[in-house]
Amino acid sequence: MVDAAGPASARTLLIQVTLGRARAVDPALDPLRRSRLGWSPGLSHDELYGVARGTWTLGERVRRERFVVVCADGLVWQAIEIERIVDTPDGRRAFEGRVLHRGHEVHDTYVGGPAPNGRQRNPITFFDSAFDRRLCACGCGNPVGRGDFMSGHDSRAVHERVARVGSVVAFLEWFDRTWTPDQPGERQP
Ligand SMILES: [Zn+2]
């Protein structure tokens, strides 16, 4: 776990939102017009996102972060990719983003597993993650947990280059013209 004030470096961290027990609230008084807060078993993805996204006391540093894992009862129940941070009428802030599903590395690494920072009283904590250091080799900016590419991004990267040359035939001609056989990495026949 990392101090909430954050290190001086620009390194990104993941955010752990820790939800308390479910409780009813008056939508007229809730800044996001919700009728319930907190976690309880059986919440839908949307319901969980609705209670997890705010409102929180969030410093400026959260604007650098990309992912939230939503925890309750010591486990991770959801992962969210942050699209923006919005100010809320109560003077606090909320996340807006998309709920990640199976197949996304952040989801697959954390959801269903133990809360990275364990059981927390503080609803917002930060943690270091391998995702901060390894990004997809295609250049899309998405983190990868294992391998060099997100699923499908390796062939996408190749097709994108073929398209830039013009066609597969043109790409092969360009390759054969350009490739030097004794280049490092070339396999010997
Ligand atoms: Zn990619």
What can you tell me about this protein's structure?
With 189 residues, the protein is an alpha+beta fold. The protein is 20% helix and 22% strand. It is built from 4 helices and 8 strands, in the order E-E-E-H-E-E-E-E-H-E-H-H. A 6-stranded mixed sheet has the order 4-7-6-5-1-8. The protein is elongated.
What are the defining features of this structure?
single chain, 189 residues, alpha+beta, two-stranded antiparallel sheet, binds zinc ion
Low-confidence segments, ≥5 residues, pLDDT <50? 3-10
Overall pLDDT: 85
Largest sheet: 6 strands, mixed
**Small-molecule components bound:** zinc ion
Q: What is the string of helix and strand elements?
A: EEEHEEEEHEHH
User: If you compute it from the alpha carbons, what radius of gyration comes out, rounded to the nearest whole angstrom?
Assistant: 22 Å
Amino-to-carboxy terminus distance? 51 Å
Kindly report the spatial arrangement of strands forming the biggest sheet: 4-7-6-5-1-8
Topology, please?
Elements: E1 14-18, E2 23-24, E3 36-37, H1 45-52, E4 54-56, E5 67-72, E6 75-87, E7 93-99, H2 105-110, E8 124-127, H3 153-165, H4 168-178
Parallel strand pairs: 1-5
Antiparallel strand pairs: 1-8, 2-3, 4-7, 5-6, 6-7
Helix pairs in contact: 3-4
Bound molecules: zinc ion.
Provide a short characterization of the protein structure.
This protein is of the alpha+beta class. 20% of the residues lie in helices and 22% in strands.
